[in-house]
Each structure stands twice: as C-alpha cells, then as structure tokens.
Amino acid sequence: MGHRILHLLGIICVLTTVLAGAGSGESRMLGIMLPNSAGSVLAVLAALVAGRVPVMINYATGAEKNAAFAMRRCGLSTIITSGRFLEKVECSRLDGMVYLEDIAESLTRSDKLKAALLAFVPTPLAGGAVHRCDENDAAAIIFTSGSEGDPKPVVLTHRNICFEVDAMAEVFHLEENDSMLANLPFFHVFGLTVNLFIPATRGLTMATHVTPLDYSAICKTIREEGLTIAAATPAFWWGYLRASRVGDFETLRIAVAGADKCPESLRTECEEQHGVALREGYGATETSPVISANRDGADRPGSVGRPLPGVEVRIESIETGEDCAAGETGRILVKGDLVMKEYLDDAEATTRAVRAGWYDTGDLGYLDEDGFIWLSGRLTRCVKVGGEMVSLWRVEEVLDRFLPPGVACCVVAVDDERRGARIAAVVTSEVDEREVVRRMATELPRMAIPKTFVRVDEIPMLGSSKVDFRAARRLAATSMSGGG
User: Fold this and answer.
1) What's the longest Cα–Cα distance across the chain?
2) 422/2 Cα distance (integer angstroms)
3) Which of 23, 279, 284, 341 would bridge 78 by S-S if both were Cys, CB 3.0 to 4.6 A apart?
4) pTM (2 decimals)?
5) 205, 231 in Cβ contact below 8 A?
6) How far, in Å, CA of 355 to CA of 20, rounded?
7) Among residues 337, 349, 445, which one has the least CA distance to residue 391?
8) If you write DSSP's letter for every residue of 140-190 in order, what string do you get?
9) Helix (H, G, I), strand (E, B), or coil: what is residue 311?
C-alpha cells in the first residue's frame, strides 16, 4: 500500500475522530467550505462516518459573508476549511474555523498504523466504526442559489441521495470503469450528489477541479484522463467548447447540460465540433437534484427528458388546480424519494413548497404524449406588461436565436409606472438592435419585445453558475435611468 493511500486513510481516520466531537454540543451540523479536491471529499465522507451533517457553504459569491450567514442560519459552531484556500478567496478566519492543513500535519505514526489496519478489515467489520442512522435522517444541507431571493438551507436525507445515485446509475448505465469530471462545486447540489456521491458509492474515478471556470485545464483533463462523463451548465459548456481542441472530448460517452436552458446553438456546436450529443437534464436543489434527463434511447432535443425511474411528475393548471392534458402548460409538480425533507427550521416555507408530498418547482412546462418534459419558464419570471402576461423565459429563448454567435444574453423586467414593467435585454456585445427587434417581432407580441439593450462584459452569475437576475435587473434599471 502506497504512502499516499496511507496518508489519505490516516486523514479520514483522524478527521472522523476530530469531527465526531468538534463543536458538537446539541447540533450535529458541521460547516464545510472547501474547493473540489481530495481534501473536501475526505471531509464530507469523514463527517458522515462521524455522524455529522455536512453543511456545504458557497464560497464563490462572498466566502466570508456566506460562512457567517451559514453559522447564524444553521447554528454552526465549526467550519472545516483551509488556510491557503481562505487566502485565495480573501476570507478572514472566523471563530470556529478549523484548518484541514492543521489536521493533516497532526497525523502520527499511530494514526497511519490505524489507517493501514482499517484498510484490511473486512467491510462488515469496518462498518461497525461508521455512525448508524435512519434513512430519513439528514445527510447534507445545501443552500439554494438565491437567484430570486435569499438562499434557503435545504435538508437532504440519506434516502434522497441514495435514490438519486441509484436512479442515475440505472438511467446512464454507470460502470466502475467510468470516470467523471468533478468540476461543479460540492456546495452545488449536483456537484455534491453526482460529482461526489456517485463516484464515492459506485466506485467510479473522479477528476476534481477547483473551479469549473478553468476551461483550458478542464479540456486537458478530459483528454489526458480519458474521462467518460461530464456535466456542466450551458455557460460552462460554451467555455469548454471555445477552449477545446479536436479530440479533447472523444472519450466522453455522457455529456449533460443543466441548471439553465440549453440553447439549440450550443447542442449544435458540441455535435459539430466533437461529435458529442449534449443531453439536457432538469432538477432543483429541493429534489436532490435530478428530476429528468435525456439519455440513450430517450433523447428529445429541446425537452429536458423523461423523469427518472420512481419520479412522478404532474402538470397542474394555474387557473383550476386540475391536471393538465398532454401538451398543456401548467405548474410542474414532482413527487418521490428525491423530494427534500424540509427547509431547515422553516415550516412555513416548507409547507408552501411541498403539498401532500408534491414539490412545487415554481416552473412552468408541459408533458408531451411520450412523457418528455418541456419547460416554458418560471412563474417568478412572468410579468405583466400593459395588462398582458409575458414570459421572460420565452423572450430570452427567442432573443438567443437571433443574436450573433458567441453573444450571451438574459432578459429582465424593470418596473415602469405607466406600463407596469419594461422588458430589457442584457447582452455581452453590441448588436444590431433594430434588426434583432425586427426578427423577434415575427414570433413575439409587441409588448414582449425588449425596449432596451444593455451592453455588459459578462452576464452576472451566481456561484451555482445560474444567472443572477437580481444583479442583471439592477444593471438594466441603472442603464435605463441614465446612470449607466
């Protein structure tokens, strides 16, 4: 057994001992704020072995602010992090922060010997050292993205995560010889469930990257490591395509886009450049996360696929509350073992989100006759303009098709005293506004056409890589008021 393996086993043994008592008191929750790495994987697994509940903290949108918020909101007394990492994200050391480097440096010969012995203990016997829990106990807490409000702590159970792991393995026919790109931060629900727990429980190889934004390095990793599975948001996939060379993705057999709508232009470019079919999926933090996905034998581009096995989806009429017919748009509700336990200590919000076991996604869409889900937008992204309801999602979809290649966009509504709201397009390059508007008018009513185009260097993004609509709205409002 190599020194490196012994060292890692030693760390997890010591971590388990340390975490079992670190700031425990009455709370089993433990903050973890680390980038994707062997250290963060070990910290999460050791926390679970020790009977603690990892609270994954978003460091990408203000590490110090988010760490302090998580400590207040979840009653944390301890956060496992790294001194070197805090320097990189410019975060001060808060009371209760424990450095992973300090734990690693404290390893003794005794710890390494214990690790070596544990490595050779038969699994049934080694299981006695693992904390026993109920499948409905909390396994992790993930914060929602906060794209439309303050982040909410979502409690996911062991049942939730095991269901997702098993369903994904079945749908995508995962094997031990598969290897996965672990590029999405573990504070993101897809990063934790898919990038971490699937490889850890199914024996897949994972290749971690500290940031999903290191496009060239990630393309190199996929090529050199021969990775077979990669998932990212559409924004990240655009970055990978631009940084890639011919042959970089030839080993990929599964390529998934999610978190935001996947433009047809992105699917086309991925297919033309690399011969890779980019499949779109759909999920939410509250559903652990994957609800549906396109896959081999069931791929309908433009849709977000069929629900995973064991997942129920119904479309509810906004007006009547009755089930919608195939092809009829309504509110998307989801039921199954993937639905979260609760929003931590917020019974009111939980009751609003989950009714009789059905989670209200807040999304609009429909089921076609073959059971594929088609998204139409979000209820919160529908606004009244001149008394008529306008879907900003639909406006964005049309705008994207008429923009020059490589130009990103998002559409927001800014308050207007006379009309209720004005539609604005935020774009990353100067465009021929008159021509774009003319073409959009062939598909949209007049009140849905953007009245203002705001030029920015980059579309504002959250740490989860979703569009930060609140920031985009502020940019548009400033520009429209003459302040930009």
Assistant:
1) 74
2) 63
3) 23
4) 0.81
5) no
6) 36
7) 445
8) EEEE---SSSS--EEEEEHHHHHHHHHHHHHHTT--TT-EEEE-S-TTSHH
9) coil
Tokens of 15: 């971590």
CB 185 within 8 A of CB 191: yes
Q: For each of the domains in the chain, give its residue range(s) and CATH number, in order of start.
A: 3-367 (3.40.50.12780), 386-480 (3.30.300.30)
Tell me the CA distances in angstroms from 97 to 53, 101, 102, 445, 455, one per residue in order: 16, 12, 11, 54, 41
Name 452's Cβ contacts closer than 8 Å, sequence gap at least 6.
422, 423, 424, 425, 476, 479, 480
Residues 6+ apart with CB under 8 A from 297: none
Closest to 463 measured CA to CA, from 151, 226, 180: 151
Whether residue 307 contacts residue 367, with contact meaning beta carbons closer than 8 Å, is answered with no
Q: Is 336 left (phi over 0), alpha (psi -120 to 50) or beta?
A: left
Per-residue pLDDT tens, the chain, 484 aa: give them: 344 444 455 456 666 666 655 555 556 899 999 999 988 998 998 888 888 999 999 998 889 999 999 999 999 999 999 999 999 999 999 999 999 888 777 767 776 676 666 666 665 655 556 677 899 999 999 998 765 567 899 999 999 999 999 999 999 999 989 999 999 999 999 999 999 999 998 989 999 999 999 999 999 999 999 999 999 988 899 899 999 999 999 999 999 999 888 888 899 999 999 999 999 999 999 999 999 999 999 999 999 999 999 999 999 998 888 999 999 999 999 999 999 999 999 999 999 999 999 999 989 999 999 999 999 877 777 777 766 778 888 899 899 999 998 898 999 988 876 667 889 999 999 999 999 999 999 988 888 899 899 999 999 887 666 788 888 989 998 888 765 5
| Cross-strand pairs, 332 | 315
**Encoded tokens for 87:** 């320097």
Q: Which amino acid is at 148?
A: E
Crossing angle of helices 234-243/215-225, nearest 10°? 70
98: helix, strand or coil: strand
Q: What is d(CA 307, CA 259) in angstroms, rounded to the nearest whole number?
A: 16
What is the Cα 2 distance to its own chain's centre? 35
**CB neighbour list of residue 39: distance below 8 Å, 6 or more residues apart:** 11, 82, 100
Distance CA(339)–CA(149), nearest Å, equals: 21
Q: Token pair of 404, please?
A: 């020059």
Buried b (16+ CB within 10 A) or exposed e, 239-260: bbbeebeeebbebbebbbbbbb
- Cβ burial, residue 482 (10 Å; 0-12/13-18/19+): exposed
